[in-house]
Amino acid sequence: MARIVRIHEYGDASVLKLEDIDVPAPAADEVQIQVKAFGLNRAEVMFRNHAYLQEAEFPSRLGYEAAGVVSAVGADVTDIQVGDAVSLIPPLDIARWGTYGEVANVPAHLTVKHPQNLSFVQAAASWMQYVTAWGALVEQAKLTQGDFVLVTAASSSVGLAAFQIARSVGATAIAVTRTQAKKQALLEAGAAHVIVSDEEDMVERVMALTNGQGARVVFDPIGGPSFEPLTQSMAKGGILLEYGALSPEPTPFPLFTVLGKCLTLKGYLYAEIVADPAVLARAKAFILEGLASGALAPVIAKTFALDEVQEAQRFLEANQQVGKVVVTV
What we know:
By secondary structure, the chain is α/β, with parallel strands linked by helices. Helices cover 29% and strands 26% of the residues. It folds into two domains: 2-126 and 298-328, Quinone Oxidoreductase, Chain A, domain 1 (Alpha-Beta Complex), CATH 3.90.180; 129-271, NAD(P)-binding Rossmann-like Domain (Rossmann fold).
């Protein structure tokens, strides 16, 4: 028996139930881990709210990220041993390999022996943010030395990961945040510049910071009305990677700006990276090197205990954090 978080219906954070259930042995291509920590993601809140790409089959587990110690291995697993300290590159099913709880069976090929300098909390906070940011910025946008990248929703874990990845390749990250409340924290987290959108004209400020050229890369999970000024802030031939839809308002298509600047607008999903073994191998190599050297260092906003999982998701939904919310087990 293990304590596992499940939902029996869609709803607010109160539908998260901590239950004692039997966890089966891992399948042939899986490993079982005793979870020490798991990271929270907005996808899990959306899943709980019935606003996600995947439908739940009740009762349902949930959770994408975890770090812990291997307690059992499947029959076909040869490169991971019982007792290994590991973390999980999030798989492409939020429920099947749900990580919220004391024990989780997870795909062996997505299980990583992370650098020893990482704590379990840091390891549980690493893979979703860094794979997401690396895939967009390095693999697809080819971000490189001298580039400017404009990062919205900048206080999210993915936003902070984007700053660190940009710096590691010699690019300059410009963060966008609505109010002054998080400005200093964003600078301390690695943004070269911060634009407070409620007080400043974003387009004018970006053009001033880039000597009139604009940002070659935009990394945005919001959409909505800000989409138009984002394109106006871009350099000719630039690329905008849209990886979310946080705004509830319609997203306009700025036809003449796109035409005049010959822009590329691309929808981007984390799944693009995880589903391609060759690309995933490149992501793992880059991220492991960065984690080991300290060039990539997860920012932890707050930790909660397992029996506080409802409070943890409410804190995430309140949008007050800078960095990753993690639950310890």
